[in-house]
Give the backbone structure.
Amino acid sequence: MQIAIPLFDRLTALDGIGPYETLQRLPGAEVVFVADRTGEIRTENGFLGLIADATYDDIPNPDVVVVPGGTGTRAVVSEDGHPLVSWVQAVHPTTRFTTSVCTGSLVLAKAGLLDGKSATTHWGAYDSLAKLGAVPTEQRIVEHLEDRIITAAGVSSGIDMALRLSELLVDDVAAKAMQLMVEYDPQPPFDAGSVSKAGPEVMERLIEYMADGKA
């Protein structure tokens, strides 16, 4: 079972690494990081590099695709015929599941997979997702199992999506085993993980950080 996670300039690391940490432990799973070129791909702020071991041409028939998000998705979807979008279009007909985390759903939408379908993304990208033909929703995970598509909301939701994917690929016991393996038992010290919970003071601080390039 080959699971492909595409990399691109200025992706969000946890969008890909969260699902990787969960899915790589499934029986028979082979996770491959793929890009338009092999070698190092730098994440959003340039602080972290991830390595693509294969090109898109090397991976024509993955069983599962997990497209991460990040600020770099805007460049991907602004370019007609971007290699990532073209690859998603080419491989989706034969995948078991094509999935996204955060603004990775913009890539699926650009590829035409979400036309008229409900989908989720980071809360800051709902308008961008709608402009690409999807119907944004605040749900943490959105499934279209008849079309083999799953989208997850912002960054941390990728772990939730990967656990659900583990259930679909194997069974619920396997998913629970993966959850235990990574000790995913969230007990956050604060309850500000959504716009509705954060409040104006937190939102103001976040906007300040974003303006300074810190978020």
